[in-house]
Specification:
There is one protein chain. The chain is of the alpha/beta class and 116 residues long. It has a single domain, classed as Nucleotidyltransferase, domain 5 (2-Layer Sandwich). Helices cover 44% and strands 25% of the residues. A five-stranded mixed beta sheet has the order 3-2-1-4-5. Helix 1 crosses helix 2. The N and C termini lie close together (9 Å). The C terminus is likely disordered.
Length: 116
């Protein structure tokens, strides 16, 4: 069962996260490297997250290592929509951070998947 949703905005050198775990959103930035991926998994553990459902913003191959690290740690992730999708949606709903938008979009999907 999914405990939380995680929106991830990926760039070449870093990635920004927005963790929605029911009570309040938490944000954190990490290096986009094996060290940063391990820090992400540890950070989720610090917040007592057993399983997260993550959504990555599309950035070519820059998110592949993050997705694999999440999968290997037993978490779920949703393949990203195209970058233009998020940019158009951000203009519509007025958000400033892609990671927060991903988390808000993913919450209903995560609830449906975890109910199966």
């Amino acid at each position: 069962m999914t405990d939380a949703v995680l929106g991830i905005d990926v760039s070449k050198n870093t990635f920004d996260t927005n963790l929605g775990a029911g009570i309040k959103a938490r944000s954190q930035s990490f290096a986009n490297s094996p060290d940063g991926w391990h820090h992400l998994i540890a950070w989720l553990g610090e917040h007592k997250i057993g399983q997260v459902h993550a959504c990555l913003e599309a950035t070519g191959r820059h998110g592949l290592g993050i997705a694999l690290a999440l999968h290997e740690a037993g978490h779920m992730w949703t393949p990203p929509f195209g970058k233009g999708f998020y940019e158009r949606l951000c203009k519509t709903v007025g958000c400033s951070h892609m990671s927060g938008l991903c988390a808000r979009l993913l919450w209903p999907l995560a609830l449906m998947v975890s109910a199966d």
